[in-house]
């Protein structure tokens, strides 16, 4: 992989190759020892991504879920934010496809490039060629909210009832945001704990495709912060954002 490739291509190609390695690992190891498979998956993808970025972008810092947080990133102009295996639980469950590899670049205060590989679905969504967002949702179609399958926010069901929406539980945050990008869902909402690596890459792609992405109070999502905790998020079509933020506020107040 040549170092002259642009950042968008680097993000896409590294996420895709890490995903291929994870599929091979899954195939070789099987699912009888899920805890071992999860550990191997995290380590394999992290080592590949970290070493590849060190070779291709040696001057850049890296923030990885599986790596040591080096404070030097806070002084860096360019930081790669990676989640080598997002949806580790789902990765170790046979026939599940809702796990992902995240590779994003933060540069001068903004997300500059990103890619989300969905290896078990055979695709990578990236800022090289963001998904096309239709001008309008099909009229009369019921809203679909995707949220965590294991720890959904308490207010989501009240929100869904208020909107007459269907709740679609999924694993990886990247898979959920990609579901919105691909029209499988209309809304992704989460509260209760995440980190920058959970959302940086999918949010980069979502922004490039024209989606709204913010905190659930409407505040901007900020990356490469001293504390990488980024506990809540809303991703949706831009015309839905004001209504959804108000609905989330109302539903949360009833908690």
UniProtKB/TrEMBL annotation:
rRNA processing among keywords: no
The keyword Zinc-finger belongs to this UniProt entry's keyword annotation: no
Enzyme class: hydrolase
GO biological process: 3'-phosphoadenosine 5'-phosphosulfate metabolic process; sulfate assimilation
A Pfam family it matches: Inositol_P
Keywords: Hydrolase, Magnesium, Metal-binding
Single GO MF annotation: metal ion binding
Binding site for Mg(2+): 65, 83, 85-86, 198
Gene3D superfamilies registered for this protein in UniProt: 3.40.190.80, Fructose-1,6-Bisphosphatase, subunit A, domain 1 (3.30.540.10)
Cofactor(s) needed by this chain: Mg(2+)
Signal peptide boundaries: none
Protein EC: 3.1.3.7
Protein name: 3'(2'), 5'-bisphosphate nucleotidase
Organism: Nocardiopsis mwathae
Organism taxonomic ancestry: Bacteria, Bacillati, Actinomycetota, Actinomycetes, Streptosporangiales
């Amino acid at each position: 992989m040549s170092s002259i490739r642009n950042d968008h291509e680097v993000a896409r190609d590294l996420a895709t190759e890490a995903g291929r390695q994870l599929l091979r690992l899954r195939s070789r190891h099987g699912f009888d020892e899920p805890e071992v498979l999860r550990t191997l998956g995290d380590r394999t993808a992290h080592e590949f991504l970290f070493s590849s970025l060190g070779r291709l972008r040696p001057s850049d810092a890296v923030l990885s879920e599986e790596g040591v947080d080096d404070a030097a990133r806070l002084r860096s102009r360019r930081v790669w934010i990676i989640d080598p295996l997002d949806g580790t639980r789902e990765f170790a469950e046979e026939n599940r496809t809702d796990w992902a590899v995240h590779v994003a670049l933060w540069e001068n205060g903004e997300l500059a490039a990103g890619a989300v590989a969905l290896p078990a679905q055979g695709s990578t969504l990236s800022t090289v060629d963001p998904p096309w967002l239709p001008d309008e949702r099909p009229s009369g179609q019921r809203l679909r909210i995707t949220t965590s399958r294991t720890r959904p926010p308490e207010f989501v069901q009240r929100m869904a009832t208020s909107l007459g929406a269907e709740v679609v539980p999924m694993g990886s945050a990247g898979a959920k945001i990609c579901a919105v990008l691909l029209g499988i869902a209309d809304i992704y909402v989460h509260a209760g704990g995440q980190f920058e690596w959970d959302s940086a890459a999918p949010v980069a792609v979502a922004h490039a495709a024209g989606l709204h992405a913010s905190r659930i109070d409407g505040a901007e999502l900020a990356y490469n912060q001293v504390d990488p905790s980024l506990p809540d998020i809303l991703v949706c079509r831009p015309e839905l954002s004001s209504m959804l933020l108000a609905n989330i506020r109302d539903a949360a107040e009833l908690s």
